[in-house]
């Protein structure tokens, strides 16, 4: 079976997603630890689920721990569980997610948010394949496959001393980088069709396509929230439209200005462009301004005007030999 058949819920088969699919199909059937890297909403959760569903553990559970959603003081208890009375508030014994994931897959989402002190315990649990409940006095053997994900630059976090290098190397055995949507705009069309179908069916409305005006808008937007943002937009638009074609979408106000702002530093001023052009022509004309074959003739302006411009734009006589 090739990777196109396996990951059916994942849209995007060409360009950067082809590589992602290839890596997924290479690693899914192994026991290898996988690290998913990518901006928010690029599909890391979906990839983790797809890998689990194509793995040897597919009939076992996949348990997710969102490390960013848990307060640092609760994360260890969430992961490893605790015994009754092990700390104030531990009224009952609690089985942690690591234990619950036994024989299956444990998906550690936003691993970059893991408190430094807990990172050592995670490393130990992965390496020794055993855990200890908080307040417990025995170790518990576990058989867990780890998939972790982060939207942070984890290597950078290691350099800054915020993430343990030994854990990073242990997690980074098989990294898969999910490209942002703006770098795979060729998938937008297919994603839109997929979400239109999904949300039309869900809402009972018959919305079958988007207008070409909307398509242009979607193709030029920079998608900071990636596929999740596109999905939410289509869901909202399906609910708002009264026709079978979506003819308007509401992207964040000022997004075009934002795009412009990001490029503004790179835009040349008129004077810079004119100056460069005059310099280029002067170089071609070997510094000759007036007369036959002079720069003024080439530029179709009087030599006096060209002289004035050279003075105003402070063009040094670099072109003179
Ligand atoms: N290639 C894709 N095909 C279809 N749906 C996708 C694709 N990529 C992402 N999605 C959908 O987009 C939404 C966001 O994806 P997901 O939650 O996997 O992103 P994420 O990278 O884990 O985000 P975060 O870092 O915020 O947790 C989900 O509903 C997911 O099903």
UniProtKB/TrEMBL annotation:
Protein's recorded name: Formate hydrogenlyase transcriptional activator FhlA
Coiled coil ranges: none
One GO-annotated biological process of the protein: regulation of DNA-templated transcription
Domain Sigma-54 factor interaction: 10-239
Residue ranges crossing the lipid bilayer per the database entry: none
GO MF entries: ATP binding; DNA binding
Keywords: ATP-binding, DNA-binding, Nucleotide-binding, Transcription, Transcription regulation
SUPFAM superfamilies reported in the protein's UniProt record: P-loop containing nucleoside triphosphate hydrolases
Domain of life: Bacteria
Pfam families, alphabetized: AAA_lid_14, Sigma54_activat
């Amino acid at each position: 079976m090739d990777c196109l058949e396996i990951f059916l819920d994942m849209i995007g088969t060409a360009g950067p997603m082809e590589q992602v699919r290839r890596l997924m199909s290479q690693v899914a059937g192994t026991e290898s630890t996988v690290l998913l890297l990518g901006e928010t909403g690029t599909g890391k959760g979906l990839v983790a689920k797809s890998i689990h569903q194509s793995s040897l553990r597919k009939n076992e559970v996949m348990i997710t721990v969102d490390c960013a959603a848990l307060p640092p003081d609760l994360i260890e208890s969430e992961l490893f569980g605790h015994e009754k009375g092990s700390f104030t508030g531990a009224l009952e014994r609690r089985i942690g997610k690591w234990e619950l994931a036994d024989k299956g897959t444990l998906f550690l989402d936003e691993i970059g948010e893991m408190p430094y002190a807990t990172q050592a315990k995670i490393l130990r649990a992965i390496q020794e394949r055993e855990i200890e409940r908080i307040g417990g006095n025995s170790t518990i053997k576990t058989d867990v496959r780890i998939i972790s994900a982060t939207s942070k630059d984890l290597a950078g976090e290691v350099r800054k001393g915020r993430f343990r290098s030994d854990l990073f190397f242990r997690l980074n055995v098989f990294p898969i980088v999910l490209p942002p949507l703006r770098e795979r705009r060729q998938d937008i069309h297919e994603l839109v069709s997929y979400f239109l179908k999904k949300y039309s069916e869900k809402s009972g409305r018959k919305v079958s396509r988007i207008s070409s005006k909307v398509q242009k808008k979607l193709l030029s937007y920079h998608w900071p929230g990636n596929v999740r943002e596109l999905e939410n937009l289509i869901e909202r638009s399906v609910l708002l439209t009264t026709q079978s074609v979506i003819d308007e979408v509401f992207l964040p106000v000022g997004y075009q200005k934002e795009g412009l702002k990001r490029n503004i530093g790179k835009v040349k001023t008129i004077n810079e462009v004119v100056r460069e052009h005059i310099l280029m022509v002067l170089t071609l004309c070997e510094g000759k301004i007036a007369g036959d074959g002079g720069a003024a003739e080439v530029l179709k302006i009087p030599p006096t005007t060209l002289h004035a411009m050279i003075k105003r734009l402070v063009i040094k006589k670099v072109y003179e030999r």
